[in-house]
Amino acid sequence: MKKLIAAASFTAILLVSCTPKASTAAATPGTTTSTAEQIAQGKTIFESSCGRCHKLPDPASHNPVQWVGIMNAMAPKAKLTDDQHKWVYDYIVSAKK
Known about the structure:
By secondary structure, the chain is mostly helical.
């Protein structure tokens, strides 16, 4: 029984350590530290990079927490830098207001 528990624990630790880490580039929901110029650039990047592959989603269609997940999934596909990732996120969150 102890061997089974040890094996299960080892497997769980191995799986957790091998999963990709979430990007820290996106801002914490509710905080915007980008300048107005950077947010404007985020809008341009959003329209050009995201619109290249699919119809642009309405920023109001998701809450800030959902946008973090979406941005973390899509930013690598769009080849955004960490700064661009943050600017697009800040634009999307500010555009809903």
